[in-house]
Design brief:
This protein has about 550 residues and is mainly α. It has helices spanning about 1-5, 10-20, 35-60, 65-90, 95-100, 105-140, 155-165, 170-185, 195-210, 215-240, 255-260, 260-265, 285-315, 325-330, 335-350, 350-370, 390-405, 410-435, 455-470, 470-480, 480-500, 505-515, 520-545, 545-550; strands at about 185, 190. It is a multi-pass membrane protein.
């Protein structure tokens, strides 16, 4: 049984199956490098700049700009690994497919199941953020959208309880939510409160994804162009309102405060892997996918750093714990015209992030279905629209329903562990295939830096630095997962000496693993529950119906 759990898909066979698939079972090849780059920007910038960047700045202060750089570096190592895989295995499925050809079926299923959570949760966050900007835009035009129809039940109830309890720090937003809870109609003892705009936009985007990739591509390119114009407007206009005094202290809550925003900041970068889900629809995937991944990551990192510095320079970081930080800072400095432009544009522009993730998730399901791990229905291609129709509809339902009723912070906690795990396996997969000589035909290869001695030397240096900063054992007791981090680094040092590993994928593994240790128990608990559900489904269905099992 252990052998069957780790049965691997052959790279050549995976490519051959895609090429031999008839037109009625294939997706349309219409995406070029520009389209793929814009799709990556659409996914990355959506929730990060327009929503979670406010929460990260509130926790870390101006120093969150450095956190963006640190997380971006971690993502660069991972993106290079993704790029090498994409040039080797130009097949839909992203990290799921890459794990299947390197580590086998069991880990591929775990990654695929984790990606389902990542993509769905990402879209729930973006949908909720979209709702906030939508109602703000309507207010700007003098139209009041009922608050109880644009907020989740938990948030409204917590605001109501805060007002009831009294206190001196209750702001206008909390009072407004409390009033919404009071005004909401009741069904028996239960208040009818839900986020209608979040569900509505998800349904509309799902419909667009169902109709076709050409239509989705054209809409995405237009929306991303508009979004980039808005961000440049914010940066250029905001520079004139920056007060350097707001950057002091630069890290008001210390390193701990900065790193507490890891989940939110990393969440803002994870979109680059969505490009690899569209491999089957790329005109030249082996050439264009690697280029698009690197390009979109560089562009987005520069924008994130600039926007975080502008935001924390315009207002004090303590004021940024809001759902729509970009519009808020300009309203705060009295520049209502720009705030209005941002609110209107964000309603349109943030839609592109929803579009990117709604494109990605059905294609992962489609690939898992083709491998026999999910029901055949998930792999069906619409005869007219050439999209995974059934999988797209199910994706829409799974995103729309939770976004109606749950709060944003709940979803941010759900996504990061699985994403880090997927990234680690992709980086490790590159090391494995390089060692086995299976990546020699890759059209793109990660620059090789021999880690034979460097990996161990860097570990000794890192241990010395950690020791010089304080009580190592106390630090390990507070974060027991650091034992796993150091043990993994030691194992990689030994294996690098033996197999001459490349250093950059090792950096990818270590940076992602370290970021995992910074996540709270809430993240881990939800990930463990989600993985447990996934394993039950795998052993109940996927293990027996796998195409490799039948062979």
């Amino acid at each position: 049984m252990s052998n069957s759990l780790f049965r691997r898909k052959d790279v050549t066979q995976a490519i051959k199956e895609t090429e031999e698939r008839g037109s009625e079972h294939s997706l349309a090849k219409v995406l070029g490098v520009r389209d793929l780059t814009l799709l990556g920007i659409a996914a990355i910038i959506g929730a990060g700049i327009f929503s979670t960047i406010g929460l990260a700045s509130f926790n870390g202060g101006p120093a969150v700009s450095l956190l963006f750089v640190f997380v971006a570096i971690a993502c660069v190592f991972t993106a290079l690994s993704y790029a090498q895989f994409a040039s080797m295995v130009p097949v839909s499925g992203s990290a799921y497919t890459y794990a299947y050809v390197s580590f086998g079926e069991m880990l591929a299923w775990i990654i695929g199941w984790a990606l389902i959570l990542e993509y769905a949760v990402s879209n729930m966050v973006v949908a909720i953020s979209w709702s906030s900007y939508f109602t703000s835009m309507l207010e700007g035009f003098g139209v009041h959208f009922p608050t109880w129809l644009a907020v989740d039940y938990t948030t409204a109830k917590e605001a109501f309880e805060s007002v009831q309890a009294g206190g001196t720090e209750i702001n206008d937003g909390t009072k407004r939510l409390a009033q919404a809870f009071q005004d909401a109609p009741s069904l028996g003892f239960l208040k009818i409160i839900f986020n209608l705009p979040a569900g509505m936009i998800t349904v509309l985007i799902t419909t667009l994804c169902y109709i076709g990739i050409k239509e989705s591509r054209n809409a995405s390119n237009f929306l991303v162009g508009l979004k980039l114009l808005v961000i440049l407007l914010v940066i250029v206009a905001g520079v004139f309102y920056v007060k350097p005094a707001n950057w002091s202290p630069f890290a008001p809550n210390g390193v701990e405060g900065v790193l507490s925003g890891v989940a939110a900041v990393f969440f803002a970068f994870i979109g680059f892997d969505s490009i690899s889900t569209t491999a089957e629809e790329a005109k030249n995937p082996q050439r264009d996918l690697p280029r698009a991944m690197i390009l979109c990551l560089v562009i987005c990192t520069i924008l994130y750093v600039l926007i975080s510095l502008v935001l924390t320079g315009m207002v004090n970081y303590t004021e940024l714990n809001v759902a729509d930080p970009l519009a808020y800072v300009f309203t705060n400095v009295g520049f209502d015209t720009v705030a209005g432009v941002i609110s209107v544009s964000a309603v349109v522009a943030i839609t592109s992030a929803l579009l990117a993730y709604q494109i990605g998730q059905p294609r992962i399901w489609m690939t898992m279905s083709r491998d026999g791990l999910l029901g055949k229905k998930f792999g069906e291609i619409h005869p007219k629209f050439k999209t995974p129709g059934f999988a797209t509809i199910i994706t829409g339902i799974l995103v729309a329903v939770p976004s109606l009723f749950f709060k944003m912070s709940f979803f941010v906690d759900l996504t990061s562990v699985g994403t880090f795990f997927a990234f680690i396996l992709v980086c490790a997969g590159v090391l494995y295939l390089d060692t086995k000589g299976m990546s020699k035909d890759a059209k793109f290869k990660i620059p090789y830096i021999n880690a034979k001695y460097l990996c161990g030397i860097l570990m000794v240096g890192a241990l010395y630095f950690t020791y010089s900063q304080g009580d190592v054992m106390q630090h390990l007791e507070e974060k027991p997962l650091l034992f796993v981090f150091w043990a993994t680094w030691l194992a990689l040092s030994v294996m690098s000496f033996k197999y001459n590993f490349s250093l950059l994928p090792i950096f990818g593994i270590l940076t992602n693993l370290y970021l995992m240790t910074e996540l709270g128990w809430t993240n881990w608990r939800m990930f463990i529950i989600w993985m447990s559900i996934g394993l039950v489904i795998y052993f109940a269905y996927g293990y027996k119906h796998s195409k490799l099992a039948k062979k």
